[in-house]
Automatic annotation (TrEMBL):
Gene Ontology terms: cellular component: membrane
Keyword Transmembrane: yes
Species whose genome carries this gene: Caenorhabditis angaria
Family: Belongs to the nematode receptor-like protein sre family.
Subcellular location: Membrane
Domain of life: Eukaryota
Protein name: Serpentine Receptor, class E (Epsilon)
Keywords, in A-Z order: Membrane, Transmembrane, Transmembrane helix
BP GO annotations: sensory perception of chemical stimulus
InterPro entries: 7TM_GPCR_serpentine_rcpt_Sre (IPR004151)
Membrane topology value: Multi-pass membrane protein
Amino acid sequence: MEILLSPLPFITYHSQFPNLTFKIPIYIDLDQPLDLILKITFYIELVILIPSMIILSYFVWIVFTLSLLHRNISFIIVLAAIHFNISGVSRFYILLVQLDFIEEHPLALLFASFSRIEFYICAIGGYPIVAFERFFATYYVSDYENTTRNWLLSIIILVHTILPLPLAYFTLMTDYPLIIALGGSGLAVIGSQIILHVLYEFNVNESLKMKKNPMMYTLGKKFQLEENLHVMWILRGVGIILIFLALILVVILIFPWKSIIGFQNYTDFYCSIDLLLALSSILLPIFMGHILYVKGNPGFLRKTQWIFGKSKKSTLPPVKDVVIRDETRLYFTQLEMSWR
């Protein structure tokens, strides 16, 4: 419990020119000799950072250009990719300094540290922002897909870009207990998970009501309800993964590793977090791309055929006549009831 009440595991950097004191999210002192495990960890992360940024950016470009998701969610993903790439370049610079490939420069370290901390905040805040967006997708379910609401997109961009700035500055220039950061992150994820669960159940009920009452049926509402359920089903799964990872992190922090293993600090564990972030940015696009490829998404196959060679035929099932007849039957049922 002592480590949870200690300051964030960032190293304080004191610069003579200009006269600055700030934190570097590098977890070890620049003057501290690196042991073999840390060197291996840093080298692996250094090697995979650039490919991770390229692969993630390419996948996000495919998702955005194909309009696989609603415009607002697509913009959130693009913003997240931009933050990740800026943070990745910053982390690449910090690693070069840490491994003594280049000499540190105070202002460069300041900018790199600021952007890195901002990325951490944006990564945690992105989940509540998506829950916020899905709330409006549920509230405006009848015309959310067809109506452009620039004010909502503007709020999403401002919250996701501007709000982390003062928090990043506060983290960079001050000390506060680690439990505040973990507690705030936990509340954001768990609170968003609860909101998404409530919204999911509400959309399920609306879908059932629409099937029972043909007068409520519209193609736009049917499509938006299906999209809401699909997206929120995925998001709830992501939330469970985030909570599970957070519990693992808490166990790592509070478990008495020092007395059992005998190491002097938690440096190796902290550095492994950044390595996992870099690896996940490679594995996640590959995993999602594999799903799109197996399902035979035509747009994805067209965008990636230069990788796989000749694009395979789409395996998406054709529209069944029974579906068309069902849609027609509901339409005429609704029309008949409106005449009564």
